[in-house]
Design brief:
- Keywords: Endonuclease, Hydrolase, Nuclease, RNA-binding, tRNA processing.
- It catalyses: Endonucleolytic cleavage of RNA, removing 5'-extranucleotides from tRNA precursor.
- This is Ribonuclease P protein component.
- GO terms for molecular function: 3'-tRNA processing endoribonuclease activity; ribonuclease P activity; tRNA binding.
- By secondary structure, the chain is of the alpha+beta class.
- The protein has one domain: 2-Layer Sandwich (Ribosomal Protein S5, domain 2), CATH 3.30.230.
- It is 36% helix and 21% strand.
- The protein is built from three helices and four strands, in the order αβββαβα.
- It has a four-stranded mixed beta sheet with strand order 1-2-4-3, sandwiched between helices.
- Helix 2 crosses helix 3.
Amino acid sequence: MKKAFRIKKNDDFQAVFKKGRSVANRQFVIYILKKDKQENFRIGLSVSKKIGNAVKRNQIKRYIRQAFHELEDQVKNGNDYVIIARKPAAEMDYHTVKKSLEHVLKLGKILKRVNG
């Protein structure tokens, strides 16, 4: 995932938390903030220390990035997304993470309809 697609600054994270809306399922919470002047979407990841050691947390982040990479054609542009992983995400493999993310993105009406 390119650097342009990532949220890095704390101010950006805080803006999404304060002004954005949120959708959630058991594994993930996603905060969504509409950005009119932005042509692509950006994601920020938050995986708490409660979820596991550094290796586990980084693995979950890699899974989420890869899932977004595969879904990027369907994700609506012009938004900032902050994804917070919840405890059950620690026991999931990549395919379950992707399925769960798709579910929560559909709940938030973030995925575009794909013909076919």
